[in-house]
Write a structure and sequence with these properties.
Elements lengths: L1 H30 L5 H9 L6 E3 L9 E3 L6 E3 L2 H10 L5 E2 L17 E2 L8 H6 L4 E4 L7 H7 L2 E3 L7 H15 L3 H24 L2 E7 L3 E4 L9 H4 L4 E2 L11 E3 L1 H7 L3 E6 H4 L6 H5 L8 H4 L3 E4 L1 H6 L4 H14 L2
Parallel strand pairs: 3-4, 3-6, 4-5, 6-7, 8-10, 8-12, 12-13
Antiparallel strand pairs: 1-2, 8-9, 9-11
Protein name: Ferrichrome ABC transporter substrate-binding protein
Organism: Lysinibacillus antri
Membrane topology: Lipid-anchor
């Protein structure tokens, strides 16, 4: 009789345990999400609500409304590619070229070929069936053709409004892909580094930024200058404020550089940026340039060509530019 009572008690306990397990499984099944991985990431990372309307970083381009997170992405601008890479956003196709070191992985065939920075491959891009295409100044002439393929957003930095348009570009990426918190953190790092480089700028006198392409072009501090942000954002005083205000700069002779006589001579090597053989140091460090204050004080600063010439307005690239200047002017 005692054995019977024990057996009854054990069976009752088993029934209770099985009922609890069944209830737990039903609860789990009831709350299981049917969202795709991309949708789940958006839900957990961001408060972004779709439809979302995006404005380009410069005037003259139509606003674009996205109904959902773009999944197939073609990026023709290395600055925006840099920002997406920093934020952990995968892309489908990219403009292929001489990538700076920190973007070298995009040369891999895993990332489809969308053409070059100046020549999109329209049929290849269309075959990718992208949800979004991102462009900048080098592809501006092809905006209409690209817009026929997919919603196209201009995300390039405006030289006349460098810092604000850089932030606008980062915000486009952050909002579209639910990365606002990370973007804010990375922007804070860039801002802190710029404050440090302003101190360096104040200690090193007047600077002249040049581009070497077998000949030499010089850039002033004006709003239309390709490298004007070295002065307006980084804080370096201009050695010559009268230089032509343009993205292409003013072609100068070595004698003219000596006349300007900068305390710092920044040199961006376009040849190395585009993957060509360069003799930049041999060309620059000649008898004439060596008479400048910059040369005599060891302040001819050769800047990473691909980073400075090809990548504008990326979270990693802007930080890297500041760090490079700080390191070379220590």
């Amino acid at each position: 009789m005692k054995n019977y009572k024990w057996l009854t008690l054990i069976l009752a306990m088993l029934v209770l345990v099985l009922a609890a397990c069944s209830s737990k499984e039903e609860s789990t099944e009831g709350t299981e999400s049917n969202a795709t991985p991309a949708e789940e990431a958006t839900e957990t990372e961001s408060a972004t609500t779709y439809p979302l309307t995006v404005k380009s970083t410069v005037e003259g381009y139509a606003d674009v409304t996205f109904e959902k997170v773009p999944e197939k992405i073609v990026v023709m601008d290395y600055g925006f590619l840099d920002t997406l890479d920093t934020l952990g956003v995968e892309v489908t196709g990219v403009a292929k070229g001489n990538f700076p070191e920190h973007l070298a992985k995009y040369a891999d065939d895993k990332y489809l070929n969308a053409g070059t920075l100046k020549e999109p491959l329209f049929e290849d891009i269309a075959a990718m069936e992208p949800d979004a295409i991102f462009i900048s100044g080098r592809q501006a002439d092809f905006y209409d053709q690209l817009s026929e393929i997919a919603p196209t957003v201009f995300v390039g930095v405006d030289t006349a409004n460098y810092w604000n348009s850089f932030i606008d570009s980062v915000n486009i990426a952050a909002e579209l892909f639910g990365k606002q918190d990370l973007a804010e953190e990375k922007l804070a790092e860039v801002e802190a580094a710029i404050e440090e480089v302003k101190t360096v700028a104040g200690e090193n006198g007047k600077a002249l930024v040049t581009l070497y392409n077998e000949t030499l072009s010089a850039y002033g501090p004006g709003e239309g200058s390709r490298f004007g942000y070295v002065h307006s954002v980084f804080g370096f005083k201009a050695a010559d404020e009268t230089l032509e205000d343009s993205t292409h700069g003013a072609q100068v002779t070595y004698e003219q550089v000596l006349k300007i006589n900068p305390d710092i001579l920044f040199v961006v090597d376009r040849l190395s940026a585009t993957g060509e053989k360069s003799n930049v140091k041999e060309a620059i460090e000649n008898d004439i340039i060596n008479k400048t204050t910059a040369a005599q004080n060891g302040k001819i600063v050769y800047l990473d060509g691909a980073l400075w010439y090809l990548v504008t307005g990326g979270l990693q690239s802007e930080l890297a530019k500041v760090e490079e200047i700080k390191e070379k002017l220590k």
